[in-house]
Amino acid sequence: MNRTTLDNKTDLNVWELRRSYTKSGLLEADLPENPFKLLKRWIEQALISKVPEPNAMSLATVKKDQVPDVRMILLKEIEEDTILFFTNYRSEKAEDLKHCPAAACCFWWAELERQVRLRGSVEKVARGESTAYFASRPRESQLGAWASDQSREVQGREALELKFEDFKKKYEGKEIPVPAEWGGYRIRVTDLEFWQGRPGRLHDRILFCRTSSGWSRKRLAP
Asked: Cα–chain-centroid distance for residue 114?
């Protein structure tokens, strides 16, 4: 089999890439009954370890034609058995969620050799929650929400920047209101899988599933 090369200088031989995972383990005796306690702990440890964007996660949705789609977003809050994120309600992800109000997410912290996958149903948060979070954002991020018709075609970078400057002038010296088409979503999580890299590819995988009486837990083969 021939190797794929990059710019005729670098050999790219991905099937030979290997890494031994040795940083930690995941034993049942150390697990809480509520998986959200472990999720918070892992995010805190990622933050302490200075992992870039420790709250970054992929969000997978399903389009009207049943084709999956995925993108990176930021987790903004954990509430009991739900997680929150915010976006434009006219974006592609919002259109997907309107058609199929369910999603899957994945966190990956390479520095800690850890992954968390979760799934659940999705619903919009109350308007007051979106307004409160929007008010906490940096002013430039607030202006960006007004300037960006997310997922719509833009006639060049300059057009986007000019629109940003227009809103900057409009709200100069004023409080910036939350756009009508901007807000949050809540994922009501039904299952979470915690993955910890281990030597010899004998990784730890612990799956929590919601039941009528709480959470069940089982170990999966790597």
From this structure: 15
